Structures are given as C-alpha cells and as structure tokens.
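Follow-up to my earlier ticket, as requested here are the two runs.
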Amino acid sequence: MEIRVLQYFLAVAREGSITKAAALLHITQPTLSRQLMQMEEELGVKLFRRGKHHILLTEEGMLLRRRAQEIVDLTEKTAKELKHEEETVSGEISIGCGETQNMRPLSDMMASFRQKYPDVSFHIYTAIADDVKERLENGLLDMGLLLEPVEISRYHYVRMPLREKWQVLMRRDLQLAKKQTITPNDLAGIPLIIAKRQSVRNELENWFGYGREKLQIVSTCNLSHHNQSIMVESGIGVALVMEFACNQDLLCLRPLEPEIESGCVLVWKKNLTRSWAMQRFIEYVKEYLTSMEKEDIGE
C-alpha cells in the first residue's frame, strides 16, 4: 500500500466527501473513487458507508484511519530527519508530555537549546503517559515527559527537578473549601473526578485506605485541567489533580493530608538510532540538569 494512497484515504475520511477531498488533492473524483475501491479490495474490507451527500467510516475504516495517520506522520518525520546536513544541527524533535509543572523547565531547555541551534524545532504532543509510551514505541515520538508512577525499564531517562503534588480542585462555595488540607475522611461520600490511568488510581486508592467500591467516582479524566475545571465549576464533583496555577474566582485548590507527591521523568528509547538534533538535545538536557543540581547545592 502506497503512502500516497493512505494520504488519499485520510483526506476523504477528514472531509467526509470524495468530491471535496478530490478538489483538495487536485485529482479527479473518478480517480479518487477508483483508488479507494482498490484499497478496499486489497484489504478485503469495507472502509466506508456511502450516502447520497457524504460518506462515513466503518469500524475497519476508523482503525485504518488511526494507523494510516501514524504511518504518514512517521514517514514525514523520517524525511525531515534525513534532510539535515551532518555539520548542521537541524530537524524536528517530537516530545510527548502530560500536564505537569515540569513542562516549565523543559520549555526553558528547549528555548535555550534553540538559541544555540536555531534550525531545530519542537513538536509537542499532549497526552497521558500510556498514550505517550505507545507513540514512543511506534517511533512517532522521540521523547516523553512522564509523570510517575510509570514503567520505564525500556527507556533511558533523566529525572526532572520538580515534584508534583496532588490537590483537590473544588468550588470555593463548598464547606470543604474552608479546610486548609483535605484528608480521606473529608472526601467520604463526596462525588469525585479522578484520573483514568490505572496506576494513578491505585495510588489514590491507597491514600484513601479503602477500595474503589467505597469511592463515589462520578467521572474519570485523562486530561485536562481546563475540562476538569469546567466540570467542577458545574457542580459535578471535586477533582483530584496535580497542582497547577488555578486563577479562577469560583474554584480553589487544597493540598492532601497526608501529602501525595509524584516525580517526573524525561525518557527516550534504548538501543535506537537517533537524529543528530536528538542526540545533541539529550546531551544538552543532561548538562542543563546537572548545572541546576550544582546551583541548588551552592557549588
């Protein structure tokens, strides 16, 4: 299956119309229809349900859309890496990130690295650790900024400087908001919005001291603080989140007691050939973090 045909398929899936997709691709509608029919014959499945004015993806089509996008992204990424000249550090570095305050020191490193190597650009993909690791395995990302707990035996890593603290995000008009810290007993019977990642939920359930069946979980979320804030503001429940800058008048954050802290690691795959830009950035990150540690201990 050619990359060009996958790009045709993605255009039709995106537009929901062969006519519109053909116009964007600058090919004729019969040519595009024929390519799609040949793709279905080659795969032995129906990819589209065709209507009078639009087409929809079948379940097989939705699976192919996901895989096709990954293949096209990886092809484009590889082409960019191969174009750089040996003496010039250039290209794109793709980093998957969760919602973490360690994005700030990472951003500082990216900014100062680009001052030294202005031909390097960064692509940031925001997702939970499980999704980031999947894209690392598929070669779609070069690095991942992952919140612990997370399995990282397959990766090289550096530990980021900031510790993340769990907090309760709630409306200011709740009686609970009058407390300075929140204990497990304080949340008994309170509707909760918690993280979807199983490893994180296990840690939170350990903090509560009893199993999920006794928790009043009304919603799970992978990301983001913005969506969780809207849900909390609407009165769905209170959210257990990593500490962030909550600047809303209606909401507030309160720390847990006892505290739960999580570390954060920047990872990249072992035993993998890396682009020139990626290799230089790894070296830069290690040097940068080492200098930060020396500053902290006053050397």
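Run two:
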Amino acid sequence: MDEPYSTEPVVLLNEVFPQDTNSRGTLFGGRLLSIMDTAAGMASSKFAHKQFVTISIDSLKFMRPAYKGDIVEVTSRVVFTSRTTTGCYVVARRLTRSEWEPEDICAGFFFMVAVDSDMRPTPVPQHTPANEEEELLWKQAQRVRDSMLSEDG
C-alpha cells in the first residue's frame, strides 16, 4: 500500500452562534460532535485521498462548555490505521475573542472507513507512529477499537 499523502492535522474553526446553543447559552453537545466528526473525515481524506464514512466514535469526554460567541477550534489527526480504517484523535478547544487562549472542552477517537463508489470498504495507506506520543495514541486507539469490536462480537 502507498504511503499516506499527509499526516498533518486538520484544524477547523467555528463560531458558536445562538442557534448552536441551549437555553443556558452553551454549545449543544450534538453540534460539537458534528464538527468533530467533520474534522475526522477531513483528516482521513487528507491522509488517504479517499472518501470516508464514520464507523464508530469512542465515548467522548465533555470537559467544560463552550459559550455563545466563543470560537471552537477542532484539531483532528490520524493516529491509527487498519486495512480499511483510520482512527483519528480529535480534540476540541474553546477560545474567547478577548483572550484566544485555547481551553480543552472535549476529546475522543473517531474511526472512519474508506469506501469506494459502491460504499464498499477499500484499503488505506498505513500510519507508522514516528515518536513516543504517536505510539501512545496508536495504542490507545487500538485498545478502544479492540474493545468496540469485542462488544460487536
């Protein structure tokens, strides 16, 4: 299989608009999940130059809210691969317009499957961890994936 086209992360910036919030003025979890899922799909496509669909999402950890008017910065990168799957580690941070200091609000693993025009799984380039941090993320993603696969069993 070919080498990955890019191992660089994808970063998305989104403003939290009033329609994205609940009655407390905080960002809906489902809206954040959508942004994070989009970033995982883009990182996977950038990595393999293929179309991807989401196959599973690890239990996300919502650490703190984002508020109306905040900027949400979502960073996604491929940290794991199997034959047809990429595992992306996705981190969401909130930034205020007055400080622009990132504060983690949510993180988790998104698993994406490359598909052909008939929606059949297709092979992807393989990711090779290049340092200790990448090795750790690979192992974490593999544990999450193995756990999900054993639950399907």
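The only thing I checked on run two: The chain has one domain: 10-152. Let me know what else you need.
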